[in-house]
């Protein structure tokens, strides 16, 4: 490269940085769309609307939440991956979209680690292992013992390859027990059949199960996260019940198209982290069966996504689900 060409490259880079910084200073100058890749009323939709409301209050700009469901979250994720990388189209993406789908889908139309840059880890969805009260077990240890003497015990899931399914498969692999999945179209139909005794147990997300948990219609044995869930402090964690390495949660992450200018990402990151740290936001999120997260850098979140792809890819492989969709 000739000296004058090298000088032009340096000048172009400097101008690009200056333009990006100026864009971030003016950002947001128009409405922002937050895409949710699933139907309304789910965890991602609830969180997107909470964040949208708070960002509108802080910025005085309109935040539009748009649901683009279909194909296990693929349609919405693909839409954002191909959107303009300017910070005006964002995605609230669950762990299934950002990690599990990589191994579950035979030909995934986006690459979470390449097509998106994380803004913030918004929340964890805590799951609880529940059994029908007629099952003669009152602890995780008793369930493991019972399952070993009753091979082929069935468990309910909210569909193949979803966290409800994979958490049970992780539990199987860590305990050496033999259980078979029974798939339903969602958490509530699956949980209703556990209540009715048609299927003896399942891993269920706490949000939709709160009322049933408090009614005593199912018996909770342990929460899936390493720490207990503050809203239900009397339920032990599976980790403290004999499986110290068990730690599983679904999570929701706010992401942007990969080439979004870093100053814009940094501005978004700061605003969302500030919102998540507020006590009222933590309380609202806990009320929906989740734990507010935040507190991680963009770079650490990129490493986190890559690690989760590997971790859950192994579970998908063990369950025989790789490339099944």
Strand order of the largest sheet: 2-1-3-10-4-11
Mind summarizing the main beta sheet?
6 strands, mixed
CATH topology (level 3) name of the largest domain: D-Maltodextrin-Binding Protein, domain 2
| CATH architecture descriptor of the largest domain | 3-Layer(aba) Sandwich
Global geometry: globular
**Which structural class matches the secondary elements?**
alpha/beta
What's the alpha carbon Rg, rounded to whole Å? 22 Å
What kind of oligomer do you see? single chain
Total number of beta strands? 11
The first-level CATH class name of the largest domain:
Alpha Beta
What is the averaged pLDDT score? 91
- The portion of residues forming beta strands comes to 15-25%
The number of distinct structural domains comes to 2
What is the end-to-end distance?
48 Å
Helix content: 40-55%
CATH superfamily of the largest domain: Bordetella uptake gene, domain 1
Q: State the low-pLDDT regions, or none.
A: none
Work out the helix count: 12
Written as H for each helix and E for each strand, in order along the chain, the element string is HEHEHEHHEEHEHEHEHEEHHEH
């Amino acid at each position: 490269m000739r000296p004058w060409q090298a000088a032009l490259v340096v000048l172009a880079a400097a101008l690009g940085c200056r333009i990006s910084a100026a864009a971030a200073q003016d950002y947001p100058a128009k409405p922002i769309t937050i895409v949710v890749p699933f139907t309304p009323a789910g965890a991602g939709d609830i969180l997107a609307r909470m964040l949208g409301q708070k960002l509108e209050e802080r910025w005085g700009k309109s935040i539009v939440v748009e649901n683009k469901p279909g194909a296990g979250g693929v349609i919405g994720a693909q839409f954002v991956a191909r959107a303009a990388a300017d910070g005006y189209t964002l995605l609230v993406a669950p762990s299934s979209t950002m990690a599990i789908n990589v191994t579950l889908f035979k030909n995934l139309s986006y690459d979470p680690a390449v097509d998106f840059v994380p803004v913030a880890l918004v929340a964890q969805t805590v799951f609880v292992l529940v059994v029908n009260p007629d099952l003669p077990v009152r602890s995780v240890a008793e369930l493991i013992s019972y399952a070993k003497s009753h091979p082929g015990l069935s468990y309910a899931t909210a569909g193949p390859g979803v966290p409800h399914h994979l958490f049970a498969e992780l539990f199987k692999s860590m305990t050496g027990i033999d259980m078979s999945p029974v798939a339903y179209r969602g958490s509530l139909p699956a949980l209703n059949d556990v209540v009715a005794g048609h299927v003896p147990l399942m891993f269920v997300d706490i949000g939709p199960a709160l009322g049933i948990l408090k009614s005593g219609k199912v018996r909770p044995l342990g929460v899936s996260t390493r720490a207990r869930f503050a809203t239900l402090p009397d339920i032990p964690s599976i980790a403290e019940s004999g499986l110290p390495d068990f730690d599983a949660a679904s999570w929701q992450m706010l992401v942007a198209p990969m080439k979004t200018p870093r100053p814009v990402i940094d501005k978004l990151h700061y605003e969302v982290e500030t919102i998540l740290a507020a006590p009222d936001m933590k309380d609202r999120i806990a009320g929906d069966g989740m734990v507010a997260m935040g507190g991680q850098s963009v770079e650490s979140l990129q490493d986190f996504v890559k690690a989760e792809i590997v971790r859950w890819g192994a579970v998908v492989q063990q369950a025989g689900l790789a490339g099944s969709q």
